[in-house]
Write a structure and sequence with these properties.
Uridine Diphospho-n-acetylenolpyruvylglucosamine Reductase, domain 2, Cytochrome p450, 3 domains, two-stranded antiparallel sheet, 18 helices, binds protoporphyrin IX containing FE
Length: 471
């Protein structure tokens, strides 16, 4: 194993097979900060024998974040590609194929019919949650793991929007399985359980060198277990798609959700512009992988971001009071009022709260960019194929860019017209990167804040008591 390279950089000393993985420990951020403090703006570490370069300065980030065909590849997941999931969007590092899928996903997620449908689904599933709590006859309040509930809630929404299927994770969570007796509910729980397991395995797939996954007994056993889970999940998605294809062939009405969007893309039923360009429609396999990608990319990230948001709001009663005030002004006092996109657009303060929370703690603190050409970054020459880590958490919390970045201050994102102090500079606009950057930046970056706003507005109906103990 050879750790020599043309541009030696400071960084922890690697060992064969593990590289520097074994010393990262359970708090990768602390490890990262320690190395950055010691080594400065550019340093390196190794995943197995693969070199990874960390860059912390804004100029390097600007180069790596440019939307350019030169730097569009993300960290490869060879074992996931081996399972056939590399030709969708998230794990796709083939430019032509990625570009075709990305345009399609952008179009699907940006369609106003889709966004309106999403807002309605969120309200309906929230109402179900409220009904379940009522059925459980909860009078004096309910203590529950709010983040876990959010995760279930987001899972039900994402499954519905991407596969048209009802899942019952909220019901199962709130009722502790009592209300989940039907075959349909049991199957849906198996499906969402497999989704959870896939998330759990992602870290393993990303950071365990292929050699270890294939040849070191404990690791090989775990890889096989994860593969069985992927095959189950993938098979379930293919079944859903075949069923829907048949319904559409038999003349079923089109819905505004993602599945129908992918199924009719580039066919005669497609009202979008791509039809004109004579692009081939998607195969069942491609629709399955795209469904997989949008289901998985959106759920966990949004649920985690909402957990952080709730934490900050609970810790800042003055912010909660302002949210209540805005909701009363925009929606009135009737808790059953329908949420519309137009009304959500008027929630300027809540939008600022969402942004500030996304800035302060990032769901994905780093992204990895791989250049297809030689690059000169921070004064060093790097060969093509170098893996660069961009520190978005650092960009969003850099004291040279943000005034008191450690404070939770939604006013910094609220325009003066609405009582805030916002005067966001070009540099801040660039540095605000919770959704990553460049060609591979989050495909859900428009829809995610709308989801967060809707959920937050609805959540205000849950009385956050005893906020001091919220941790
Ligand atoms: C607050 C919620 C979310 C956060 C913080 C978030 C963050 C991110 C980040 C950091 C990336 C990687 C970007 C990069 O490599 O530069 C990403 C990719 C992606 N996200 Fe999100 N995301 C969120 C919600 C969503 C939602 C709701 C969807 C879709 C329904 C979605 C779909 C995607 C997809 C498809 C990709 C892969 C894009 C590509 O490879 O071209 N995300 N997201």
């Amino acid at each position: 194993m050879n750790f020599k390279n043309n541009t030696p950089l400071p960084g922890p000393i690697p060992i064969p097979i593990f590289g520097t993985l074994h010393i990262i420990g359970i708090n990768p951020r602390a490890w990262y900060d320690k190395n950055s403090d010691k080594a400065g703006t550019v340093w390196e570490f190794y995943i197995g024998h693969e070199r990874n370069v960390v860059v912390n300065d804004i100029n390097s980030a600007e180069i790596l974040c440019k939307p350019s065909k030169r730097i569009y590849k993300r960290l490869p997941f060879p074992s996931i590609e081996r399972m056939g999931l590399g030709h969708g969007l998230f794990f796709n590092n083939n430019y032509e194929s990625f570009h075709k899928k990305r345009r399609l996903v952008n179009r699907a997620l940006g369609a106003s019919k889709f966004i309106r449908g999403l807002v309605i689904s969120i309200q309906n599933i929230f109402k179900e949650s409220e009904d379940i709590w009522e059925q459980l006859n909860i009078k004096d309040g309910l203590e529950f793991d709010f983040c876990e509930w959010l995760r279930c809630f987001l899972t039900d929404i994402s499954v519905l929007q991407t596969t048209k299927q009802r899942s019952y994770t909220v019901a199962s969570f709130a009722a502790k399985d009592d209300l989940i007796q039907s075959e349909e509910a049991k199957n849906s729980l198996k499906f969402t359980d497999a989704v959870d397991k896939f998330f759990d395995s992602l870290g393993f797939f990303a950071f365990t060198p292929l050699f270890m996954q294939d040849y070191v007994p404990g690791f090989t056993h775990y890889r096989k277990k994860c593969e069985r889970n992927v095959h189950f999940l993938y098979g379930a998605i293919v079944n859903i798609i075949n069923k829907r294809k048949k319904e559409l062939d038999e003349g079923a009405e089109l819905d505004a959700d993602l599945l129908d969007h992918y199924l009719i893309a580039h066919t005669l039923k497609d009202q979008g512009s791509d039809k004109v360009e004579n692009v081939a429609s998607l195969t069942t396999e491609e629709v399955s992988v795209l469904t997989w990608d949008t289901l998985l990319a959106g759920t966990e990230a949004t649920a985690n971001a909402l957990c952080f948001l709730t934490y900050f709001v609970a810790k800042n009663p003055n912010v909660l009071a302002k949210i209540h005030k805005e909701i009363n002004e925009v929606f009135g006092s009737d808790p059953n009022v329908e949420f519309t996109l137009e009304k959500l657009d008027n929630c300027h303060y809540i939008e600022a709260v969402v942004k500030e929370s996304l800035r302060l703690i990032l769901v994905s603190p780093y992204t990895v960019k791989i250049s297809d050409e030689n690059e000169n970054i921070a004064g060093y020459d790097f060969p093509s194929g170098t893996k660069f880590w961009v520190d978005h958490q650092g960009l969003c919390n850099n004291p040279d860019i943000w005034n008191h970045p450690e404070n939770f201050n939604p006013d910094r994102f609220l325009s003066k017209n609405y009582g805030g102090s916002s005067d966001i500079t070009e540099l801040q606009r660039f540095a605000f990167s919770p959704f990553g950057c460049g060609l591979r930046g989050c495909a859900g970056k428009v829809v995610a804040p709308i989801m967060m706003k809707t959920v937050k507005d609805l959540n205000v109906r849950i009385n956050l008591k005893d906020v001091s103990s919220f941790s």
